[in-house]
Amino acid sequence: MKFRKAIENDILAIVEMIADDELGKKRENYQIPMPTEYIKAFEKINSDENQELIVVENEDLEIIGTLQLSFIQYLTYRGGIRAQIEAVRIRKDKRGLGIGKIMFEWAINRAKERNAHLLQLTTDKKRPKALKFYEELGFKQSHEGMKLHFN
What we know:
Blueprint: E1 2-5, H1 11-19, H2 24-27, H3 36-47, E2 51-57, E3 63-73, H4 76-79, E4 81-90, H5 99-113, E5 118-120, H6 128-136
Parallel strand pairs: 4-5
Antiparallel strand pairs: 1-2, 2-3, 3-4
């Protein structure tokens, strides 16, 4: 597997993966042509040195996974950096093959390379399998998260 920074031509495959689950179907708009909101968001992500939108390719150069790492500078932890991992998705026909574990191992190493003091994530409570998977990787439920949606 090859990990690389996403390019604009990857947006369609990425959005297809993030829209391809029970929750994603309700909030994403996967269609051809790609809605401009996704292109604008990609441009912002791509221009920010603290954002890394990653795709994972198999040996046939097909995109089979994606994730986004955000590096957040803090004053706490003596000016530490937190890495946030989001939008981890694997193409439906490749799930259950251990790819997710490999992706997280890569992300953990990448966060360490960027001198992050921790890697954090959130997961929807409606995803109990994901929660179990993260715990098996060593993540701990240390905080209660809350959100305030504006739309």
